[in-house]
Amino acid sequence: VVSEEEKLVLKENLHIKEKKMVLSVGQFIYRKGFDILLHIAKDFPENTATVIIGGEPTKEYLSIVEKYKLKHIYFIGFKEKEELAKYYMAADVFVFPTREDIWGLVINEAMSYGLPVIVSNQCVAGAELIESGRCGYQITLENQRLLLEKTKELLLDNRLRRKMAEESLKKIKNYSIENMAEDYIKILTDYIK
What we know:
With 193 residues, the protein is α/β, with parallel strands linked by helices. 50% of the residues lie in helices and 15% in strands. α3 links the parallel β2 and β3 (73-76). 35% of the residues are buried.
């Protein structure tokens, strides 16, 4: 797990001046729910950056930023894996408020970098990987107040955040490509029999 001091250096290198950072990654489309994240960002603790990576901000996203006069929002275009890794390591919390995702590989990625994850219950990876209260939280999109509360809780409670980060790393170890391939082989073998 990346230390608080290392995270601050990484943020500085990425030109993010805030002390805390909420990260979300995905295509800039309605289904990903980034508008929901922007709506709650207005109530994040002071000195918290909200970084959304994956494209050009839509008119809707920009109008939300304007409506709430949001100052700590970073829209960042698509990044290659090596560059994206720096953002995962710099982040404090990963929030994925998707309205629908068949899997949501970004959950695997965030956990592999030791991040606590807050994900909607509309994401299969969230249902499979996130045990609420252990390595993050799974929430319903209808309960945006809970999404905000859990995000703030993780931003403000260093001990809880670190504990969940360690749980994320433990949990995701079982989801390596090798382990998943073994599971598929076993399923196919059982099916053939």
